[in-house]
Amino acid sequence: VGLSVSLLNGAARCIAIQDVDTLPELGAPVDYGDCAVPTQLSSEIECYGWGPPCAANAGGVVAMTTEHWHQVNGFGNTYEGWGGEDDDLNRRLLRNNLLRGSCGDFCDRDDLGFNYQTSGLIRRPRKGRGRFICLDEASHTPRTHGDKDQMREKLTEMDMGSPRWAS
């Protein structure tokens, strides 16, 4: 729905999705127009030690062209609460050969699954250009995690080649 509504207002080159509890650090040079390939703009997140949660994460703040969003058939909206939608997007990007990043500036973060041989990751901006702070739970409506069994079932279906998410 969000993509369709944004396109009604004219030709948008980049469309970004953003977790509501993740905000750019004051003064951070985050480029919301950086979307030639799918890009996780939130590459340095305060509550994850100024890195992404893990190498395979494709959530937080992600910018893609309208063509990429159409290619992956949008962003999953069948997950209740939080959890699963980032993994879902990562699988959609993988299935459509849109994961063109490497470990980049995070090659030294083997604790997060990065190493110099890592490929097939979402692209991330250079260090210093993806800094985001996290709102604490007291700053917004408390989040509830969705049903983990249902989440795993949906992700497993996708791994097994379900056409459910195909465009």
Q: In words, what does this structure look like?
A:
The protein has a three-stranded antiparallel β-sheet with strand order 1-5-3. It has a three-stranded mixed β-sheet with strand order 2-8-4, with no helix packed on it. Strands 6-7 form a two-stranded antiparallel sheet. The protein has one domain: Spore Coat Polysaccharide Biosynthesis Protein SpsA, Chain A, CATH 3.90.550. The protein has 167 residues and is an alpha+beta fold. The model has no long low-confidence stretch (mean pLDDT 82). The chain has four helices and eight strands; from the N terminus they run αβββββααβββα. α3 packs parallel to α4. Helices cover 22% and strands 16% of the residues. The two termini are 14 Å apart. InterPro entries: Galactosyl_T (IPR003859), Galactosyl_T_C (IPR027791), Nucleotide-diphossugar_trans (IPR029044).
Ends: how far apart? 14 Å
Compute the gyration radius: what is it?
16 Å
Strand order of the largest sheet: 1-5-3
CATH topology: Spore Coat Polysaccharide Biosynthesis Protein SpsA, Chain A
Total number of helices: 4
- Low-confidence parts, pLDDT < 50 over ≥5 residues? none
Topology pattern, helix = H, strand = E? HEEEEEHHEEEH
Write a concise synopsis of the structure shown.
The chain is of the alpha+beta class and 167 residues long. It has helices at 2-8, 66-71, 85-95, 148-159, and strands at residues 14-18, 22-24, 39-40, 44-45, 61-65, 101-102, 119-121, 131-134. GO terms for molecular function: galactosyltransferase activity.
What brief labels describe this structure?
single chain; 167 residues; alpha+beta; Spore Coat Polysaccharide Biosynthesis Protein SpsA, Chain A; three-stranded mixed β-sheet; 8 strands; transferase; Nucleotide-diphossugar_trans; Galactosyl_T_C
